[in-house]
Design brief:
Blueprint lengths: L6 H15 L5 H7 L16 H18 L5 H21 L13 H21 L5
């Protein structure tokens, strides 16, 4: 237990933060909107602008938790929701609505492709073959 929270508390806080960032859509709702398999993390399919937005809100929350010595799920959740709303507001001012952005290609699939390409490049380099 950290700061008066169990692991399930952290999950609830993250979920409430997502709801604030995605205009009222919970993580599970966003997965359905984007047709993401239920067993896969939403972050594996988020547009590149959304990932740092979520991370910034989380880092601001982490900073505030330490600075203000926040304890307990309710206080930390209120802070995290506020930070996600602030990030959403900033994005909205720029005409960006996170819940309306199309999903990206599966991050895990891209990682596998990059590993395969790296392996092929290394093998071709060893053979002295021209690079593709």
């Amino acid at each position: 237990m950290r700061r008066g929270l169990m692991m399930t508390g952290f999950a609830r806080i993250r979920s409430k933060g997502d709801r604030a960032l995605f205009g009222g859509f919970a993580t599970s709702m966003m997965k359905k909107r984007l047709k993401i398999p239920g067993n896969r993390p939403l972050a594996d399919f988020l547009p590149t602008i959304t990932i740092p937005a979520k991370n910034l809100a989380t880092e601001i929350t982490n900073f505030s938790v330490k600075k203000d010595n926040l304890q307990g799920e309710e206080k930390i959740m209120v802070e995290h929701i506020r930070n996600n709303r602030d990030i959403r507001s900033l994005l909205s001012k720029r005409g960006i609505k996170p819940e309306e952005l199309p999903h990206e290609e599966d991050l895990k699939k891209l990682e596998r492709k990059l590993k395969k390409d790296d392996k092929n490049l290394a093998e071709n380099s060893k053979k002295g073959l021209p690079r593709k």
